[in-house]
Amino acid sequence: GMKKTTFEILIENVSLTAKGMDRVEFLISPNVGEPVRPLARIASGGELSRIMLAMKRILAKVGGRQVLIFDEIDSGVGGAAAEVVGRKLKELSREHQIICVTHLPQIASFADLHHSVKKESQGGRTVTLVERLEGEAVVDEIARMLGGLKITERTRAHAREMIENAKRS
Fold first, then answer.
1. Range scoring the smallest mean pLDDT among 16-25, 37-46, 117-126
2. Distance CA 144, CA 86 (A)
3. Fewer CB within 10 Å of terminal CB in the chain, N or C?
């Protein structure tokens, strides 16, 4: 989703410190005709998410099989870009164990295994509950992501379609 983005790496030699002897800065220009600027200052949440995914994909090629954790990689991403992120995560899962926390059905529909994570109060404390989802519970969760509080047969059908499309890709 960032086809015309320019990405550069600026490496400057500095005096040796505990952090090394190079200063490295990532520069991007997400818009054609604009000069590259520091990633940390100009990238949107969605751009940062996609750049992080791209970097992890590249780094995952080094050092054998790994567990890669993506916590809300969908930040600032929606629609078609989210589906692309889901496809890229699926590709990565063929060689690595992927753990992904997401709020988007476009990403969740690509998962082989689903868990629901909820927080609730018990005895005056907040506890986190994790439940493995299987079968129709997966469809219901994807439908909940699509339609909110009210799950209808139409949202369930859409969820099933998304899951089936993801399996075919």
1. 37-46
2. 18
3. C
Neighbours of 7 (CB within 10 A): 14
Whether the Cβ atoms of residue 151 and residue 144 lie closer than 8 Å to each other: yes
Q: Whose CA is closest to 70, among 97, 47, 45?
A: 97
Sole residue written with tokens 């930040």? 75
**CA angle 30-49-86, nearest 5°?**
110
Distance of CA 168 to CAs 40, 53, 94, 165, Å? 37, 22, 14, 5
Up-side HSE of residue 130: CA atoms within 13 Å toward CB?
4
3-state secondary structure at position 137:
helix
Per-residue pLDDT tens digits for 30-60: 888 899 999 988 887 778 877 887 887 787 7
Tokens of 79: 């629609």
CB-based burial label for 134 (10 Å; 0-12, 13-18, 19+):
exposed
Question: Contact, 85 vs 73, CB < 8 A?
Answer: yes
**Which run of H or E residues covers position 25?**
strand 20-29
Tell me the one-letter amino acid at 106: Q
pLDDT in tens, 125-169: 999 999 999 999 999 999 999 987 888 999 999 999 999 999 988
